[in-house]
Amino acid sequence: MDYAVFHEIAHEEEWHEVAKIDCSHQEVHRHEATKDKTDTRLRTVIRVIYSQADVEDTYQNSVDEIFDNLVENEGKWRNGG
Fold first, then answer.
1. Can you tell me the distance from the alpha carbon of 58 to that of 4, in angstroms, rounded to the nearest whole number?
2. What is the distance, to the nearest Å, from the Cα of residue 66 to the centroid of all Cα atoms in its chain?
3. How do residues 68-77 score in pLDDT, each as one tens digit?
4. What CA–CA distances, in Å, run from 79 to 38, 53, 64?
């Protein structure tokens, strides 16, 4: 099982990624996008993956974290990070 949980918003008739948690590169990590023209992303490691259980154990927390921080993450994006 692999996953990626996204938070995107519509802005000026386009979709923009605000935050994402995924499990690529042998780790579960969070990306927070900024609104600047360089498409800068802040990346934070949540957990190193040693087994499939690590991926499965973090899935629901990742969904909850994205959902619980919708307003905060969008505010950061709209204000440039």
1. 11
2. 7
3. 999 999 988 8
4. 15, 37, 23
Q: Are 20 and 34 in contact (CB under 8 A)?
A: no
Rounded mean pLDDT of 39-59?
89
Q: In what order do the strands lie in the sheet with 4-11?
A: 4-11, 14-22, 27-33, 41-48
| CB under 8 A, 24+ apart: contacts of 78-81 | 78/35, 79/35, 80/34, 80/35, 80/36, 81/32, 81/34, 81/35, 81/36, 81/40, 81/42
CB 77 within 8 A of CB 35: yes
Instruction: For tokens 């780790």, name the residue.
Output: 27
Please check the confidence at residue 37 and state whether its pLDDT lies above 60: no
